[in-house]
Amino acid sequence: MTPSILVLAAYLIGSLSFAVIVSKLMRLPDPRSFGSGNPGATNMLRTGRKSAAVLTLLGDALKGWAAVAGAQALGAETHTVLLVALAVFIGHLFPVFFRFKGGKGVATALGVLLGLDPWLGLACLATWIAMAAASRISSLAALITAGLAPAYAGLLMGWDDTVLAVLALALLLVYRHKSNLIKLVRGEEARIGRTP
User: Tell me, what DSSP letter sits at residue 26?
Assistant: First the structure.
């Protein structure tokens, strides 16, 4: 399978928005129509259905992991695997199936990082959990984790192209959280489990 086909397939996999899919299957409102308007697990909590949030989280993380692990299993070279990692993440942020209006990418990023290196993914997950527990603010935990992810990648995997790919992923995640950054500065960001 050629690198271009792997990258395209990864983008299409990333374009599957599990928040929207789960909402339709569970007959819930479209997650883009309430709360923060973000089709992600945190906003799905606002439906009052924790199972919907968990399914969204698992689905979005799994697609990130599956794209990377699949490319590795097919014997793709490192640079192709890194392009696949970015493609599945970009697919989540800008999904072709949902008019390019996707989520903020936290769960998918976790899946990608777990696929690249389990210890890298676990380090980021532990950081997010610690920051979320301390602040009760999902976006703040995500932003801090994104800032540390490239350093974790360098320490765990070496200071090579992987760090650049993780840095690109982190910058995209921060960009998608720009509205959250403004709310954080104003002290208006919603805490986990509460409506904005």
Answer: T
Find out whether 90 and 17 touch, Cβ atoms under 8 Å.
no
Per-residue pLDDT of the chain (196 residues; tens, 9 = 90+): 799 999 999 999 999 999 888 888 888 777 777 766 678 787 787 777 788 889 999 999 999 999 999 999 999 999 999 999 999 999 999 999 988 889 999 999 999 999 999 999 999 999 999 999 999 998 999 999 999 999 999 999 999 999 999 999 999 999 999 988 999 989 888 787 555 4
In angstroms, rounded to a whole number, what is the distance separating the alpha carbons of residues 38 and 31?
Answer: 6
Give the closest residue to 169 by CA, choosing from 88, 97, 68, 95.
88
Whether the CA torsion 100, 180, 162, 60 is positive or negative: it is negative
Contact 76, 2 (CB under 8 A): no
